[in-house]
């Protein structure tokens, strides 16, 4: 049996549990691997099996979560212990599909105790560099879904590095929301209208500044840069926000009303890019010397220039892929593709063991 402990039963977590239940028989036949949940955890409690949860128990928990309930409402729920106390003696795969902070140290402790980790949660990889190293050394943590959701970004990068290639430059569009905004601007929309449309359609976080600050992109950039071997502290990657500092602390309603105050800067940058024959993109650029996250002009023949809408695109220029870069492109968000990326990591971990 491969014991799984899953932290998080939100959109990604529930999709993952459904996918695991669906593929478990085929994985058992194909590889002789028996994927079994020993515990699932949400923000309010945990449910553990003895030795594992049955399929019926997992489906019941999913139904309760789907209906908006908490694990603490279930008979037998554990609410007085940290999840690290629920680990079995045998090796388990600990899957973090929360967006919680503060998990890096307990996950590193789990690895020290012989367990393995799979992440969709970026935050554990974005604390101090020592914790990143503790989590990732000897491949103890897989984290494909942290950058580009289900797209093969981390595995492509690791395979380039493992085969002795050298990264000359990684250029990437890693935010579907900011990609949507750039397409709207290109189609003639004002910045204010583009942000309000994205907000109305539910493409932004409840507070659109969470997208416009670039903070989530900066976390992905830090993960990519650290994977490249850069020993960067957490604060080394600073994203360029798409709004002025004086709008950082007003309410969401006021922010949406006062978007005009962010308009001029962005529209001037768009006009300058056009005048230079370039396009404007919100990108991550990683070279051996630097890591940048912000609005940049991109040449009209660059792969990033062809990007439309919310897709992600990651372009690797390396010593071997020099004349034309290796490009990974596709949907970089969505619960099903993200869960599939996590499931791929779980199966790879289980096969390795
Ligand atoms: N959605 C996407 O397209 C996508 C793509 C790539 C990566 N990701 C990453 O995947 C992760 C999950 O995303 P999501 O959309 O599923 O988020 P979500 O719907 O907000 O779900 C988060 C889950 O984590 C649980 N949780 C929060 N704090 C916890 C804690 N301290 N201990 C245990 N559980 C805790 C929540 O519990 P309650 O249910 O009790 O609230 C909830 O079940 C995030 O890190 C996100 O950045 C998402």
TrEMBL record:
The active site is at 220 (proton donor). NADPH binds at residues 98, 122. The keyword RNA-binding does not apply. It catalyses: L-homoserine + NADP(+) = L-aspartate 4-semialdehyde + NADPH + H(+); L-homoserine + NAD(+) = L-aspartate 4-semialdehyde + NADH + H(+). PROSITE patterns: HOMOSER_DHGENASE. NADP(+) binds at residues 8-13. GO terms for biological process: homoserine biosynthetic process; lysine biosynthetic process via diaminopimelate; methionine biosynthetic process; threonine biosynthetic process. Gene3D superfamilies: Dihydrodipicolinate Reductase, domain 2, NAD(P)-binding Rossmann-like Domain. This is Homoserine dehydrogenase. It comes from Chloroflexus islandicus.
């Amino acid at each position: 049996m491969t014991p799984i402990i899953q932290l998080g039963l939100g959109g990604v977590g529930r999709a993952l549990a459904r996918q695991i239940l669906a593929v478990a028989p085929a994985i058992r036949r194909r590889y002789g691997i028996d994927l079994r949940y020993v515990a699932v955890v949400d923000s309010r409690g945990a449910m553990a099996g003895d030795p594992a949860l049955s399929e019926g128990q997992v489906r019941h928990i999913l139904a309760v979560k789907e209906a908006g309930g908490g694990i603490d409402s279930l008979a037998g729920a554990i609410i007085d212990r940290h999840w690290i106390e629920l680990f079995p003696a045998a090796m388990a795969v600990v899957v973090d599909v929360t967006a919680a902070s503060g998990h890096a140290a307990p996950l590193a402790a789990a690895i020290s105790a012989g367990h393995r980790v799979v992440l969709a949660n970026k935050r554990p990889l974005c604390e101090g560099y020592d914790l990143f190293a503790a989590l990732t050394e000897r491949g103890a943590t897989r984290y494909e879904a942290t950058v580009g959701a289900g797209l093969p970004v981390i595995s492509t990068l690791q395979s380039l590095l493992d085969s002795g290639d050298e990264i000359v430059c990684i250029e990437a569009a890693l935010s579907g929301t900011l990609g949507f905004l750039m397409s709207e601007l290109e189609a003639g929309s004002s910045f204010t209208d583009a942000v309000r449309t994205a907000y109305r359609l539910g493409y932004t976080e409840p507070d659109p500044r969470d997208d416009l600050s670039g903070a989530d992109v900066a976390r992905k950039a830090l993960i990519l840069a650290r994977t490249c071997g850069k020993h960067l502290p957490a604060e080394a990657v600073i994203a360029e926000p798409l709004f002025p500092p004086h709008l950082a602390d007003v309410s969401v309603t006021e922010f949406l009303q006062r978007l005009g105050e962010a308009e001029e800067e962005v529209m001037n940058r768009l006009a300058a890019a056009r005048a230079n024959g370039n396009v404007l993109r919100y990108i991550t650029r990683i070279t051996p010397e630097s890591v940048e996250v912000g609005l940049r002009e991109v040449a009209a023949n660059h792969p990033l220039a062809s990007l439309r809408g919310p897709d992600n695109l990651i372009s690797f220029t390396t010593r071997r892929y020099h004349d034309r870069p290796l490009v990974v492109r596709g949907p970089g968000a969505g619960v099903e593709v993200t869960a599939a990326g996590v499931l791929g990591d779980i199966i790879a971990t289980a096969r390795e063991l």
